[in-house]
Inverse folding.
């Protein structure tokens, strides 16, 4: 029996089965194939921490590579534009025009005559613009995909320069595509920047939580593919424990797998143990980092929202906290931007991340569910455990 877990718990790790993202993968592939200026050729992915942005960026890169495109992949930290033009693109050019053997076998389409012709074409100091022009000429019909993960305005100058060149290349009908990814707040900031208005035409894709059926697949299939089994009840509890959160799908799957790797079947007890541990990990890996960036007042407002058993009226919060409407608006926006709360309807907000409410209560109740999950009727509540996750507070008011 193999001890090797098929699951990929942790950030940026491609899951064994990528569920729930088929439409996006297909639309992007189509945009590349059609050669029209399909809107998806410039795509912005946004979503909460741990929802699968990096994994999706990687999957879209694979789509482009599968069509013979060159991929240049960066993280949006200051200096990324220089890294692209001083390191990535020279490497791509070398690969395309390098020694003859390589040219023929690896690239397979850059003939010697084309190369000689092009080398002299843009002499002088290469810029992002001339590099993109040279490379797309050499690629002859195929193109370059640029990807930029963890977008934020911390790299604003680079973004301005890069986006201007991207816009130029697109205007010239060059075969280029761009995929950027970041938290919703960062994408909102990006689109608000006047110097980046070009990006407002991008296809903006919200990566959401997964549907229940998809989570069953995300957890069940890797287990079976790797030669073990899990019964329906245990799989159902494992899936319910994720609340549709991709990060938890890998983590709960992984922990359940490792509980008793020598057994051919993953048991209900393995799943419940995994669920308990995963909720603790969720606190240290997702919730704490999300809270770290908040001011004390933001946190107080968040705690007040968490204190209400379900969605909270902003007007009530304002009264409870004794803050003026315009300040309340600022806190509300910051918490929305951080992806910690979401608007239920006008004037009503609720906690967005699974188990955050419980975390903020500083204890975790065994049968607690988030209002977000209740709203998404299709998703069953998290499994009830024989005893409370934190080992205390089993008599919480929300217990059935
Ligand atoms: N569609 C999916 N199906 C199954 N598992 C997924 C899916 N998307 C992401 N995951 C898993 O979720 C975890 C988090 O993914 P990822 O690192 O891409 O999130 P992220 O949105 O980039 O997070 P961050 O905002 O912190 O950068 C990984 O373990 C990954 O394997
Ligand atoms: Mg990421």
């Amino acid at each position: 029996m193999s001890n090797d877990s098929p699951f990929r718990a942790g950030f940026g790790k491609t899951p064994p089965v990528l569920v729930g993202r088929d439409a996006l993968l297909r639309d992007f592939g189509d945009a590349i194939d059609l050669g029209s200026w399909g809107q998806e050729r410039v795509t912005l992915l946004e979503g909460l921490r741990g929802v699968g942005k990096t994994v999706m960026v990687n999957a879209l890169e694979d789509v482009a590579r599968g069509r013979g495109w060159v991929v240049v992949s960066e993280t949006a930290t200051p200096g990324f534009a220089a890294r692209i033009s001083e390191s990535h693109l020279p490497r791509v050019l070398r690969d395309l025009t390098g020694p003859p053997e390589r040219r023929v076998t690896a690239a397979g389409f850059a003939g010697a005559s084309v190369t000689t012709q092009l080398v002299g074409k843009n002499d002088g100091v290469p810029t992002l613009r001339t590099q993109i022009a040279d490379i797309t000429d050499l690629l002859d019909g195929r193109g370059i995909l640029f990807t930029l993960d963890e977008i934020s305005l911390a790299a604003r100058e680079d973004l301005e320069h890069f986006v201007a060149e991207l816009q130029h290349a697109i205007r010239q009908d060059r075969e280029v595509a761009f995929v950027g990814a970041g938290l919703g707040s960062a994408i909102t900031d990006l689109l608000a920047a006047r110097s980046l208005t070009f990006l407002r035409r991008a296809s903006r894709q919200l990566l959401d939580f997964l549907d229940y059926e998809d989570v069953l697949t995300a957890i069940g299939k890797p287990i079976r593919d790797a030669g073990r089994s899990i019964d329906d009840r245990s799989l159902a509890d494992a899936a319910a424990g994720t609340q549709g959160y991709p990060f938890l799908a890998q983590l709960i799957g992984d922990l359940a797998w490792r509980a008793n790797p020598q057994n051919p079947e993953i048991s209900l007890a393995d799943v419940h143990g995994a669920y308990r541990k995963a909720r603790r990990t969720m606190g240290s890996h997702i919730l704490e980092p999300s809270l770290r960036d908040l001011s004390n007042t933001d946190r107080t407002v968040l705690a007040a929202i968490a204190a209400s058993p379900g969605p909270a009226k902003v007007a009530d919060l304002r009264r409870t906290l004794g803050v003026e409407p315009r300040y309340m608006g600022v806190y509300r926006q910051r918490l929305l931007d951080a992806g910690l709360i979401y608007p239920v309807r006008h004037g009503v907000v609720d906690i967005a991340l699974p188990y955050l409410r419980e975390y903020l209560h500083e204890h975790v109740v065994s049968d607690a569910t988030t209002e977000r999950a209740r709203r998404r009727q299709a998703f069953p509540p998290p499994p009830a455990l024989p005893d409370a996750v934190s080992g205390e507070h089993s008599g919480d008011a929300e217990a059935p």
About this structure: The pocket of adenosine-5'-triphosphate (ligand 1) is lined by residues 8-13, 15, 18-21, 47, 49-55, 218, 246-247, 249-250 (CB under 6 Å). The two ends are 40 Å apart (CA to CA). The mean pLDDT is 86. Strands lie at 42-46, 70-75, 144-149, 176-182, 203-206, 229-230, 265-266, 312-313, 341-345, 348-351.
